[in-house]
Amino acid sequence: MAFAILLASLSACASAPDELDVANTDPYEDFNRNMFAFNLKVDDIVVEPAAKGYLKLPQVSQDMLTNFSEWTSLPSTSLNSALQGDAENSALGVLSFLVNGLTLGMADLTDDTDDPVQTNFDNTLRGYDVPQGQYVVLPLLGPGSTRSHSAWLVDTVTNPLRFASTPAASTINTLSTPVRVVSFRGNHFDFINNVKYGSLDPYSRTR
Fold it and tell me: How far apart, in whole angstroms, are the C-alpha atoms of residue 47 and residue 181?
């Protein structure tokens, strides 16, 4: 967490508030392009084929996996909503997590109108006027800013699910990331492939 806060502090010293000026915030373009190419290879070999398999599932199965992915993010939503001073959304996140936990999040048992708005530590930092910082592409994590990558690290280490010692919690933690990646890739399959295969320079278009 100290490392993440340090990165956030460095980003605060490096750029204007919450506007990612591409011309000035991609000083690591050579490194970023190499990492982008690496991530495309991972997508070719692992993620895109998995997403194709996901899309072959019945719609109800796709919905269950998407719901599970959203459910596992609710503890982080509740924590960050509290940090942002949004007690109502924090409480809704706790309620939705507990109620939908009866199905491991695969079915939404709460009223859609009462669904919490998903949020994360990146939004929390933005609320406190921490600038985005510089554009960075990391292996596997993909593109983002120094702030968003720092925030992801904080969200990961502070997720309450990580502190549960039961076998069920350990299994949920193990499954949450691959399910989130594959469901996201599948749910945005055509858009991502358009960027990947239909661009003269996929890196610049993604940036």
Answer: 8
